[in-house]
Amino acid sequence: MPSGPGVRRDVVDLDSMERTSMACPAMPLCGLAVTEAERSLPDMLPRLRALLNGMGLEDLDSLVVRMTGARRARVRSAPG
To answer: Rounded to an integer, what is the distance from CA 22 to the centroid of its chain?
Structure first.
């Protein structure tokens, strides 16, 4: 299945980590960003899942990934 920026997938095809993870838009929209977090997240999540599976943590469904492109972690969930 294709992945990466701009690829739309049905929510039922996403695992729990992909559904709950978020990244800031980072570059080029934020002057504090040093990298492109939003574009990197879709490629990083399968690698993280493979590492977790290798450690016997394949049933870990409560992991939330928040990725930022800035030096100061500014990625937070919306209030409410």
So the answer is: 5
